[in-house]
Amino acid sequence: MASTEIPDIVIGRLPVYLRALSLMAAAGQEITSSHELGEKLGISSAQIRKDLSHFGEFGKQGTGYRISHLQDQLRRILKVDREWPVALIGIGDVGQALVRYGGFRNRGFRIVAAFDADPAKVGQPIGDLTIQDVATLPEVVREQNVQIAMIAAPAKVAQDVADLCVKGGVRAILNYAPINLAVPEGVRVQYTDPVTHLQRMTYYLV
Amino acid sequence: MASTEIPDIVIGRLPVYLRALSLMAAAGQEITSSHELGEKLGISSAQIRKDLSHFGEFGKQGTGYRISHLQDQLRRILKVDREWPVALIGIGDVGQALVRYGGFRNRGFRIVAAFDADPAKVGQPIGDLTIQDVATLPEVVREQNVQIAMIAAPAKVAQDVADLCVKGGVRAILNYAPINLAVPEGVRVQYTDPVTHLQRMTYYLV
Description:
The structure is a homodimer.
Chain A: H1 8-26, E1 31-32, H2 34-41, H3 45-53, E2 59-60, E3 64-66, H4 67-77, E4 84-89, H5 93-100, E5 109-116, E6 125-126, E7 129-133, H6 137-143, E8 148-151, H7 155-167, E9 172-175, E10 188-191, H8 194-202
Parallel strand pairs in A: 4-5, 4-8, 5-7, 8-9, 9-10
Antiparallel strand pairs in A: 1-3, 2-3, 6-7
């Protein structure tokens, strides 16, 4: 199966399934069903079965899914059965929260380099790392084979930071700055903006 | 048109369109097209036209969209042509970043109450607000008619916080804690978890 055959919207649901399965596994549960998963996530069980069917057969009719098996398969499909090195740029409130965030562990990611443009911050420790000058980013990320970056820099410099990331070989960017980034073909950007999440919910409020 | 007729996935794209339009407007642009919007957002122009067609006619064939008009209509549809009061719970790194975040202004939201469980934080100022005891949350949010909450509390207390929110009449929750929340029917939850964003991109990496 070529990656291009499967809609990105389906790919986007797989991490959500994986998170729900991990919570079940952590609670000691061994078997689930598309019905139970759907209930927990507010997605129809038919949609879940259809999404998973793109990748093969993961459960037997009537017996449900073995959670550990489905987790393994989803991790393999999403390529998080390994640990990806990640660069973090911008060590303000959001950057610090990301360094302290416990949720990366065992989910496929490790922040291996932290950057800022502020001379007062460069050289300071942050977690196990030392903040590096953002000007050195292309060289550092290329050397460490970093393909993923999280940009938590101010909006007015976020595009410049993205350009440096691309220059260093980064191919996936999670952007916390409230602007759209222009990147070349082949580089993916995901945006995280509290307002777009909130606006999606106000539609339903009265 | 009843809200229930339109798929949530369509609703979820409208804030993204609105953000892109606002950036164009800020740059002085007055007219755009589904083609240009699609190019900027990586969505097909046909999809954009189809999404908007759920809500009426916003442009003339061949002349494109007047940006200010389309912004007005999207704000009205999403009900962000007003200012919603928002409660924030958990004043750690993420909570502080949210208080300082400049992106709420003019986009439909204002944080009107901040809560924490830590006695050392309660009573302290944060931005223009004073941190309140989370135990008082149901009463405070009901009094201020707050229907929207952002939970930036630790994972182990996030469900308790969500319960307090629901008790106070909150009907939309943006959750920063890396757990799934159980809420009654009629309450919506959006999750913001950097890992699910990152995992959606690793699928495409090699």
